[in-house]
Amino acid sequence: MTSIPELDAVSAKRPPVRVPLRGNVPATPRLLRLLDTAPIQRLRGIRQMGQADLVYPGAVHTRFEHSLGTYDLMRRMVAQLLESGGGPPLPAADIRCLLVAALCHDVGHYPFSHTLEGIAPLPRHEERTRRILLQDRDLVAVLKRDWSVDPERVAAIVDDTGPLAAPGDLRLRELMTGPLNPDRLDYLERDSHHAGVPYGRAIDGERLMGAIAFAPDGVRVGVTSKGVSAVETLIFASYLMYRELYWHHTVRAAQAMVRRAVTEALQLHELDLEELADLDDGSALARMRTCPNTATADLLARVAGPGRRLFRRVWSGSLQAAADSGNAFLARVAAADYWGQVAACTEACRCMRAPDHALLVDVAGQGKELFFEVPVLDGTGRTTADPEVSLLATSLSANFDRQAKRVQVLAPPERLADFRRHLGLEVGA
What we know:
It is built from 20 helices and eight strands. It has helices at residues 29-35, 38-41, 63-84, 92-104, 125-135, 137-145, 151-158, 170-177, 182-195, 205-211, 228-246, 249-267, 273-277, 281-288, 294-304, 319-323, 328-335, 338-351, 388-404, 416-423; strands spanning 17-19, 23-25, 212-214, 221-224, 312-318, 360-364, 376-377, 406-411. Helix 3 (63-84) packs antiparallel against helix 4 (92-104) and helix 5 packs antiparallel against helix 7. It starts with 16 loop residues before the first strand and ends in a 6-residue tail after the last helix.
């Protein structure tokens, strides 16, 4: 079908890379050379779920493992699309771009996973990925020499906010970032597996993969009618994983503390933004421990010290409940960006004569939408009027907004009662 050795089920010349949940991933020489580049090797030191191991001890897997899993799912997805036909054929050059994009999609991630996102002026990790793909000499050399791909094309596929690098690449971007992308399919199952919860493992991945096909427009990726229930398992798994795992109140409290520790060091110019972005978790933590300010030191000691002394909830409730509460502080932080929330907390701390970092706000889900629009195809490849997938997605999306998106006001346990009185807050839901 194509001249892509990575699509072979077995590599005869080299032993496979063994990846949890994916099994044996064929290891071609050029795949190994790509894996050995510094940007991808750095991902060995970045945990996929940040501080989640403070609640789920098994959640210590890395973005390196996830990147390999995403690559293998893209490999399988491409093979299925080649077999199912429909839409313009995928030429070898496009397939190579897709495989590279899947493996490299997280090279721009900051340390501590998603914890630091939202701290302006930190660019989105996809923007950093774009820059690394275009500027890292060794990575660029491997992409051009071994894979015969244009780094500009790969960067445009991974970062879906910028212009496309080549005509017709919209469907490659759809495969990498659309509703049925291999990144999402892998992290939901992998995170569920390592955390020891069932939600992401309920996805019917085999049936979904076997039902994938291009929609009549040749751009969007849909499923045949036999894949509708599999898509529904994906939608429901996404909802439960965010509500019960990614946005678990204790995980979010630890992330808020690390975020504020970094914020304090950045504001005092004790930490350089570019330096921090290039570190992994361990080296970033070690570097932050050299910062002399007491706020960073106290927060890190509580999160990553000899004992676990996390902040607890002064108040918690849905984002909508905070906005509609009639409480001036809650309404303010629910509408504010990260720096506005820091300012509100600092003002409250100074009124209480408490350290500026003694009150934190964490908003889970601000700007996040649970959105799936997946075409359902009939036996001839045409889009049907089947509403099942979109109806379930609409219902869960509404519930996602009402219940999963939450505000937490956090403080050290010994200050909870004082802050509740000062802010006029009850304990909340």
